[in-house]
Design a protein that fits this description.
By secondary structure, the protein is mainly α. It is about 75% helix and about 0% strand. Helix 1 (about 5-25) runs antiparallel to helix 3. The longest helix is centred in the middle third of the chain and has 27 residues, at about 65-95. The chain starts with a helix and ends in a 5-residue tail after the last helix.
Amino acid sequence: MKPNAKRALIFIGLSLFTLVFGVVYHLFSHGVTSALMSFAWVPVAGAALGYTVVWLLIPGLSKRPMYRLTVNLLNTATAWQTLGMILSAVIAIAGSSSPYLSFYSIVALLFYGLSVLSLGLLLIKPKA
């Protein structure tokens, strides 16, 4: 199986797990809901869509030297964003707040930016 196809399947499974986790958490939250928990599966599904698009449009990309860095940066950004959304939802459902939750979004955006930058560098054809 191709590496991007395998990653896409893994991320589809993770997005389904995150969706089920959110539904189960809402069942036991005594009627209190959070939009962040309801949509925590979206970043993971977006990563799966990204891997699928790259796999279909640029199949030989995984053989390039910086590809692993790009994958790790995207995985890190997705994990930070999903974790931040889930923690924000848990804290909101509990009726509290924290000034530190915005750091999850900032770090996720930083890693998304680095991932896009490394993908751009990856798409540049070598001269030799």
